[in-house]
Design brief:
heterodimer, A: 439 residues, alpha/beta, Rossmann fold, Coagulation Factor XIII, Chain A, domain 1, six-stranded mixed beta sheet, five-stranded mixed beta sheet, 9 helices, 23% helix, 31% strand, B: 291 residues, mainly alpha, 13 helices
């Protein structure tokens, strides 16, 4: 292959066996189904299989950062697993030149009972660094993570933020010609994400080749030099980053012919939930922009509209609340149906609509939690009955609402502010003003 | 922030390795390779992995590493009370406690190492499904970990034998070979089971039962003279029979009668190890998909 092509993938495919059905009754049927799953020659028709990846071919040149876009189940992770050698393809081949480093999770090989120091050595070893290399870079790793004081403490006592920082710091030591990353950058706080993004860009400038998988178009946009879209295991598109992102978003809308399902619309019937009763009241959630179009992309200072479907809601004092969390799991907003002085009578089957005129969130990705319960309309009287913790996700962009350094999801609410320069002559507060402010 | 950025970029400015390695990933590729050469390349990782397992096992225990000795000693006391004092098993001129310990020690090594190797893939699926390394290092380091424990127990055994009037002799220098052989037997069995264990967790409790039965089918707690003469040739096909007999010879100078079964059992171990390596090499390719 040409000297510049570092990764060449030809007709790669991966087939999995469909897990045995629960409907099989009786011990014999269960054993037979179990055996069929693991003993190859007992399987027959194509029905028993499912292709996670099919006939995927592409090339990556030295120094390229290829962003791979795709929704859950599109085959992204399968592709990375094959390329990093964790699993084998069913058909096709891939040729990779140079040392491969892969980060498919944060904290590979971390053990909760071991100290930060011990985990650095072990994780480094698992990622392919020799102990000598880790020792030489140990101080840098600790420095980068910024948790010197806790380095000899078992990592189970770390906060999740500390854990992630340490894990990423080890990973950033990885020196390889080809780097395979599975959304590991999407963790940690904003400052840390920025650090890791810079480190990726610099790595690519050094001639390292990076494969980066994400369903976050924003991080793909800011980091990658080219893009590829996977859907249902097939390569749908390959081109420049911009083209790929445009195509990806088009695809998301196209998948939504009758305005239901998929983008901006979430079925809550089968979502995991908690609450004081076993009733499943919440049925679906949808998110709309100012024009009422389903969306998962919103803008600071502009409207966002939620609709929440319910059934069998109790007639009295029912409330529905929308709770918004940022990427690190902190609550950034609570919007409750009892906040509205007019109020809504949630009862029986139907849906409620909640309009927020000016979204006061910084740029980032948020998770929506939907909660249903009863309350007397006073503080402290709410009882949650049905709550879906991860009902949906949406992204927010500032779009000029705030200028300058901007505002990320971890920096609190977005407030427009007016700043005036106070001339230094009037800096000394005069006597009348002093008395006014109580000095 | 600015300072952080500088340290960070200094790190990244390391030139890439531009290594000449080439990797070919292909469907059904590679034929059958045992992975032994790769394991040798990754020997540092085997050692680190073993060390971690030893640390992790004793870290959160108040008595820590003392459990290595406490467990077999407690077991020995129970067996001595039941078989030595109540059932009065006749061990000739050898005190029961030291006779039994010379059997329990290698048996525990075998039983624990087999379990460790057999469970090694199933217990480390988290790691296997996220990062590539030669999978063979998992069962191997499981066995090495047990070998470490049994080295400690071995020292206690030598001291105990001394107390009972069997001072150490030069023959003890052969003990490492016998212990290593025991580990190989355990590895062979473990390799066979490790990849099958992942989809069929039923093997885990089954193995426990079989090992329990195996202990009674091996002269661990009683002398082999109790076995009917007619059954002896079959009874002696058990590789652990020879390990334990040899151990008693090393420590207590108890004579061993070699028979043809000794050769057969070694042959069986070699075959089991080679086939075990093949079963493992082909099975480990699929474990991520069937977990």
């Amino acid at each position: 292959m040409s000297s510049d092509v570092v990764i060449r993938v030809e007709g790669l495919g991966k087939r999995y066996v469909v897990p045995h059905r629960e409907k099989d009754e009786g011990l014999r049927a269960r054993v037979a189904a179990h055996l069929k799953e693991y003993v190859p020659f007992l399987r027959h028709g194509e029905d028993d299989y499912f292709w996670a990846l099919k006939n995927v071919s592409f090339e990556v040149r030295r120094g390229e950062i290829l962003g791979i876009l795709g929704r859950n189940g599109s085959g992204k992770s399968t592709l990375l697993k094959i390329l990093s050698g964790v699993t084998q393809p069913t058909e096709g081949r891939a040729r990779l030149k140079g040392r491969i480093g892969s980060l498919l999770e944060v904290g590979t090989g971390f053990h909760p009972d071991m100290t930060g120091r011990e985990n650095i050595f072990f994780s480094g070893a698992m990622l392919g660094l020799s102990q000598r290399e880790v020792r030489a870079r140990f101080d840098e790793i600790v420095d980068f993570s910024g948790i010197e004081e806790f380095i000899d403490m078992p990592v189970k006592r770390y906060s999740s933020g500390m854990y992630v920082r340490l894990a990423y710091s080890v990973a950033s030591m990885l020196r390889s010609d080809i780097l395979i990353l599975d959304e590991v950058m999407a963790v940690g706080d904003a400052a840390f994400r920025e650090k890791s993004q810079k480190s990726m860009e610099a790595a690519a400038r050094d001639g390292r080749t990076i494969l980066f998988v994400s369903h976050n178009t924003k991080s793909i946009m800011s980091m990658c030099t080219s893009g590829m879209i996977l859907g249902n295991g097939l390569k749908l598109f390959a081109g420049t980053t911009e083209e790929a992102i445009t195509e990806y978003q088009k695809d998301l809308y196209a998948d939504d012919p009758n305005g239901k399902r998929g983008y901006g619309w979430k079925d809550l019937d089968t979502s995991p939930r908690y609450g004081s009763s076993s009733a499943r009241v919440l049925t679906w959630l949808s998110m709309h922009n100012a024009q009422g179009v389903l969306s998962e992309q919103f803008f600071t200072g502009r409207p966002i509209r939620f609709k929440v479907g319910y059934r069998n809601a109790v007639p009295n004092q029912a409330y529905i609340a929308i709770l918004i969390h940022n990427g690190v799991g902190d609550r950034v907003a609570t919007v409750n149906s009892t906040h509205d002085a007019v109020g809504v009578r949630i009862c029986g089957d139907g849906y409620v609509e909640c309009v927020i005129d000016d979204l006061r969130l910084g740029a980032g990705t948020y998770t929506v939690m939907v909660d249903y319960g009863t309350s007397l309309g006073r503080p402290g009287t709410s009882i949650s009955k049905d709550c879906v913790a991860n009902a949906g996700q949406f992204s927010v962009a500032l779009e000029g609402y705030l200028e300058g350094v901007g505002l990320s999801e971890t920096q609190g609410a977005a407030h427009r502010s007016n700043w005036t320069l106070v001339p230094s002559a009037s800096f000394s507060v005069d006597a009348t003003e002093k008395s006014n402010i109580g000095l | 922030m600015a300072a952080e950025m500088t340290t960070m970029s200094s790190r990244i400015d390391n030139p890439p390795l531009q290594s000449s390695e080439e990797h070919l990933i292909e469907a059904g590729a590679g034929g059958i390779s045992f992975g032994l050469a790769e394991l040798w390349q990754q020997r540092e990782l085997v050692w680190i992995f073993t060390k971690r397992q030893i640390f992790v096992r004793y870290r959160q225990m108040a008595l820590g590493i003392f459990w290595v000795a406490l467990e077999p000693l407690a077991y020995l006391s129970m067996m001595t009370v039941v078989f030595g004092m109540l059932l009065r098993v006749n061990t000739g001129k050898y005190p029961y406690a030291v006779f039994a310990f010379a059997g329990i020690m290698p048996w525990l090594l075998f039983s624990k190492a087999t379990t460790a190797a057999a469970n090694s893939l199933a217990d480390n699926m988290g790691l296997i499904s996220k990062v590539y390394f030669q999978r063979l290092l998992l069962p191997v380091s499981g066995v090495v970990r047990e070998l470490f424990d049994s080295a400690v127990v071995f020292v206690i055994l030598v001291l105990l034998a001394w107390i009972f009037g069997f001072p150490p002799t030069a023959k003890l220098l052969l003990a490492p070979i016998v212990l290593l052989y025991t580990s190989v037997v355990a590895l062979a069995v473990g390799l066979w089971l490790a990849s099958i264990m992942v989809p069929f967790r039923d093997i885990r409790p089954l193995l426990g039962l079989i090992l329990q039965a195996g202990m009674y089918a091996t002269p661990v707690l009683y002398p082999p003279d109790l076995v009917p003469q007619a059954l002896l040739p079959y009874y002696q096909l058990n590789p652990m029979y020879w390990t334990i007999e040899l151990f008693r010879w090393l420590l207590l100078d108890r004579p061993v009668t070699y028979t043809a079964s000794f050769g057969y059992s070694i042959g069986a171990v070699v075959v089991a190890l080679l086939t075990g390596l093949i079963v493992f090499a082909s099975g480990q390719k699929r474990v991520v998909d069937v977990q």
